[in-house]
Amino acid sequence: MEEAIEKNEIELVSEKSLRASSVMFTFDELRSKVTCVIDYLKLHEFQMQIGKLGEAYVFEQELEKLEGTPYFTLVDDSKAADPKNGYDILSYDVDGNVIFIEVKTTIKEGSDFYISQHEVNTARECQAMGGKYLLYRVGNILGEKQHITLETIDNILDTALYELEPYNYKVRKRNNIEC
Fold first, then answer.
1. What is the DSSP string of 73-141?
2. Is the CB of residue 87 less than 8 Å from the CB of residue 48?
3. pLDDT along the chain (179 residues), means of 10
4. Domains and CATH numbers, the chain
């Protein structure tokens, strides 16, 4: 480097080219590389179908578990139609104890999933009242039926086993706020 300085072989870089080189791509370059447009409505519809498929799978599993018991006819999956419930299926164990089931379904096995604040609050309320709130994790839902996985999570609030990460915030503009 010292030799290059002595021979006056140092290339000067203008401030403008320095700024341009610090940006990997310009807006126009990035925009030209966008090749597809995602239809978020179709994506949401697909996710809803995946969720309903998982709920139907769990409903059938619950019926199978309770076959021959007086609780067989009491399993109720209509709760899934109303998100205000905070759970998808009302079921029972073989002793007749009520179970509130939230179903989380993914295409892949063992992937992360999302739970709403309302569902977490419902789990807390259930626990506080001595109830049983179970989360059923259905994985590989689009695979062959024998390859679908079902994991029962007894306590989603157990911080030693699960990390609940706040994910979404609703933003509302405040009216008439003075600083």
1. GG-B-GGGG-GGGS-SEEEE-TT--EEEEEEEE-SSTT------HHHHHHHHHHHHTT-EEEEEEEE-T
2. no
3. 50 50 70 80 93 96 96 92 91 95 91 89 94 96 94 92 82 73
4. 53-153 (3.40.1350.10)
Structure token digits, residue 93? 């164990």
Cα(77)–Cα(178) distance, rounded to whole angstroms?
49
Indicate if the alpha-carbon torsion angle 113, 164, 60, 46 is positive or negative. negative
Distance CA 87, CA 133 (A): 8
pTM of the entire predicted model: 0.74
Cβ–Cβ < 8 Å for 133, 93: no
Give the contacts of 96 (CB within 8 A, at least 6 positions apart).
Answer: 70, 71
- CA–CA gap between residue 112 and residue 48 (Å, rounded): 17
Q: In what order do the strands lie in the sheet with 132-139?
A: 89-92, 98-105, 132-139, 149-153
Using DSSP's 3-state secondary structure scheme, residue 3 falls into helix
DSSP class of 16? H
* Alpha-carbon dihedral 126, 128, 132, 138, rounded to 10 degrees: 60
Q: Is the dihedral of CA 124, 130, 132, 134 positive or negative?
A: positive
Q: Which two tokens stand for residue 162?
A: 């699960």
